[in-house]
């Protein structure tokens, strides 16, 4: 009998959920995706999460990611979602919409990092790793020998005059209409700044754009090796399902 959990990944454009086989990190059945309601207020988003669970017919524990710092199950930042998330007690919020079941909420990049440790690129398990997701923003997870240091926000570190994510997220690439070559230069500048302060043993790079890793990862210039994540957009959902199974509630 497989061990099955459920994860939900809340992003700026879509809210996605799926049953996850916790033995191998694969989805069981189809992923359900609903457009993120606008404005993406806590109540509107929680209502959409309830709809996904309803459609899936899932009544068990659920792990949920947010692009926010989560401390004591309270969201304390909201960079790419509605500002009204700041100060929201997410445990309380989701209990109101999802009833009496266990819920764990954690940062989206932290969830993706945990999934990558368990089921992704083996490089993620060893040494001092900086795991990054490139999407609307830049998400980060710091992982030492497979153990997460939660809630890092390296996407907001200044690199030159701009925050790293304003310069080198994949949304910044689209916004500025630049080639992979030009974008890789910006990403390299970000990685070099991270190295200056953190000296990781490796970078693992994920997010949707890692699907095209052959086009940009070989162009990156950093001292530590840079390797692509293997779970890509699946990672958030898988990590969320893992978190609630481990009773993690940052
Ligand atoms: C947020 C992070 C998040 C990242 C990726 C950033 O803007 O501050 O919490 O992990 O985007 O979604």
Automatic annotation (TrEMBL):
Keywords: Kinase, Transferase. NCBIfam families: PolPhglucPhase. The keyword Kinase applies. Gene3D superfamilies: 3.30.420.40. GO terms for molecular function: kinase activity. Belongs to the ROK (NagC/XylR) family. This is Polyphosphate glucokinase. It comes from Corynebacterium alimapuense.
């Amino acid at each position: 009998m497989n061990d099955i959990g459920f994860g939900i990944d809340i992003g700026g454009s879509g809210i996605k959920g799926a049953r996850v086989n916790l033995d191998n990190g694969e989805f069981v059945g189809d992923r359900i995706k609903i457009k993120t309601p606008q404005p993406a207020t806590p109540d509107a988003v929680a209502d959409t999460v309830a709809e996904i669970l309803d459609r899936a017919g899932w009544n068990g524990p659920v792990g949920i990611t947010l692009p926010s710092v989560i401390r004591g199950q309270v969201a304390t930042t909201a960079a790419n979602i509605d500002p009204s998330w700041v100060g929201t007690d997410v445990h309380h919020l989701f209990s109101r919409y999802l009833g009496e079941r266990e819920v764990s909420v954690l940062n989206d990049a932290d969830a993706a990092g945990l999934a990558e440790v368990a089921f992704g690129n083996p490089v993620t398990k060893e040494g001092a790793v900086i795991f990054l997701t490139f999407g609307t923003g830049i998400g980060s997870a710091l992982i030492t020998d497979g153990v997460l240091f939660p809630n890092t926000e390296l996407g907001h570190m200044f690199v030159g005059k701009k925050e790293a994510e304003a310069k080198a997220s994949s949304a910044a690439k689209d916004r500025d209409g630049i080639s992979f070559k030009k974008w890789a230069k910006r990403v390299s500048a970000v990685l070099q700044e991270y190295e200056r302060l953190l000296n990781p043993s490796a970078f693992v790079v994920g997010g949707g754009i890692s699907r095209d890793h052959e086009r940009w990862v070989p162009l990156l210039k950093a001292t530590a090796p840079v390797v692509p994540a293997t779970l890509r957009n699946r990672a958030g959902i898988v990590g969320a399902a893992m978190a609630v199974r481990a009773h993690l509630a940052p």
